[in-house]
Amino acid sequence: MTNATRFIRKLAYANMLANDRLHEAVSMLEAGEFEAARTSFFPSLVATLNHILIIDWFYIDALEGGDLGAKAWENEIPFPDPVDLRAAQIASDRRLLAFCLALGDEDLDRPVHIHRTGRIQVERCDDVLSHLFQHQTHHRGQAHAMLAGTSVKPPQIDEFIVADDAASRADVLQRLGITEAQIMYQDQA
Known about the structure:
The chain is mainly alpha-helical. It is built from 6 helices and 2 strands.
């Protein structure tokens, strides 16, 4: 495994852990705070977190060779309930992680066909993954900022990559059933 493959796998783990910690904080919101209007790119936590999920569906499907395309966002808020949304995000994150763990070095430059409305966009696999991880980070940051205006303190969501942060991520690893060896040494999930 090259450093590039290791890096992508590490980002998939970090993505899953950050999403879980963010959804854990959301699970503690008071009634009405999840849906409340807020200032951001999307107007609420429910809209932002659902957007993350449906764009995950769009790109993961393309990475797997599917043709879901724009059907992914036909329903802009498929999960208005935070419990159901969290379960769906965990399932999506596990699907993305499994995809990344199965990647070999030879797969990183293979073409991915992304079904857009009226056209098929073709990109390298590693570029699509980089874009997907950046998309997640971008919108998680917005959700994190929105949490600052709620009854729940925004959680730490950036301590999932380096070895020195092991103690800080133990709660999420335990909740998701992932080991430190999986994060650091890329053992299978």
